[in-house]
Amino acid sequence: MSSFACRSLRITLLALLCCSGSGEKAFEVHVSSEKQIVEATGSLKVNCSTSCENPQVGGLETTLSKRVLEEHPRGKWKQFLVLNISQDMSLLCHFTCEEKQHSEHLNVRVYKPPAKVTLKLPPSRVLVGETFTIECTAEAVKPLESLTLSLLHEGETLQNQTFEGTEINATAIFNMTALTKDSLNLSCQAVLDLRPHGGHIISNISKSQILEVIKPTNGLITIIIIVVTILLVLFVTSVLLCFILGQHWHRKRTGTYGVLAAWRRLPRALRQRPG
Ligand SMILES: *[C@@H]1O[C@H](CO)[C@@H](O)[C@H](O)[C@H]1NC(C)=O
Ligand SMILES: *[C@@H]1O[C@H](CO)[C@@H](O)[C@H](O)[C@H]1NC(C)=O
Ligand SMILES: *[C@@H]1O[C@H](CO)[C@@H](O)[C@H](O)[C@H]1NC(C)=O
Ligand SMILES: *[C@@H]1O[C@H](CO)[C@@H](O)[C@H](O)[C@H]1NC(C)=O
Questions:
Q1: How far apart, in whole angstroms, are the C-alpha atoms of residue 161 and residue 172?
Q2: Is residue 230 packed enough to be buried (19+ CB in 10 Å), middle (13-18) or exposed (0-12)?
Q3: Which residue, judged by its Cα, is nearest atom 2 of ligand 3?
Q4: Ligand 2 mean position, distance from CA 84 (Å)
Q5: Which residues are CB-neighbours of 121 under 8 A, at least 6 positions away?
């Protein structure tokens, strides 16, 4: 009984070892493409191949439309064109050889080039030494972790910003301080570096804009001039007012009042004589 159990176990183990071992060695499946990233709604050539000499069936599983471009006479490989890839996805390549099926995944990512890059400057000119912010936005761009937004002055990089996440709009906020009163010629560059995914570098640049920088002392002098002018006008007005009031009071005392009092003091008869 025990020897039978032992023998059957040994057979089972042997069978397991032999079959799983030979099964894995028997054939391999490989899926490849020249790049792992494709522009949204673009298409991708994918080669699905096996080491099996006479595969029974094989192919590429995807919900997207595909076309066979080329094929090995005995079906050892097939080259497909997968069409209209609009989001990140996984393609499954599979082959069946001697009643066994093996498969391999290919992850494909989608990119959107930075088609629209805009630069937003402070609403008016800035003062030397003042800190201000500049906003740069790249719209509908993907994937964000491949994106760098740079603030340029006369075409030279001043600051960079990188991103993370799954959003498709990226906004960089750059803090700047103007050190001299020269105007700044600013622009923003978006660089999408797809080289780690087998792609290339795609860049776009915003229109350049001029930011006027002025000396803060100019403003101070203007304020001082305005204040001094106001004080001067107030002083002159009050002096004039004093003079006029003084004149009026003086006339009232020595002129009008005196004449009336003298008239009243005159005897009635004398007053009525002219009438
Ligand atoms: C597909 O891959 C196989 C195996 O790597 C290769 O032999 C074959 O030439 C490739 N086909 C094309 C069209 O590149
Ligand atoms: C491509 O795919 C998108 C969404 O998956 C669909 O709306 C569009 O109609 C497709 N275009 C073509 C040409 O098949
Ligand atoms: C601003 O700099 C760009 C280069 O980055 C140049 O092409 C453009 O002519 C400059 N604009 C002015 C007004 O200097
Ligand atoms: C900004 O990034 C570019 C390329 O990514 C690099 O060449 C440059 O030195 C960086 N500049 C600054 C100021 O970080």
A1: 6
A2: exposed
A3: 154
A4: 6
A5: 134, 186, 209, 211
What's the start-to-end Cα distance of the chain, in Å? 169
pLDDT at 81: 97
Q: Is residue 244 left, alpha or beta, with left meaning phi > 0 and alpha meaning psi from -120 to 50?
A: alpha
Coil vs helix vs strand at 46 = strand
55 within 8 A of 72, measured Cβ to Cβ: no
Give the distance (Å) from ligand 2 centre to CA of residue 92: 21
CA 134 to chain centre: 11
Q: What is the pLDDT of residue 167?
A: 87
pTM of the model: 0.70
pLDDT band at 154 (very low <50, low <70, confident <90, very high): very high
Place of tokens 């009438």: 275
Ligand 3: centre distance to CA 66 (Å): 47
| Range 241-250 burial, b when 16+ CB lie within 10 A, else e | eeeeeeeeee
Q: Which atom of ligand 2 is nearest to the CA of 84?
A: 1
Q: How confident is the model at residue 16 (pLDDT cuts 50, 70, 90)?
A: very low
What token pair was written down for 172? Answer: 């960089």
d(CA 215, CA 217): 5
Query: Is the Cβ–Cβ distance between 46 and 60 less than 8 Å?
Result: yes
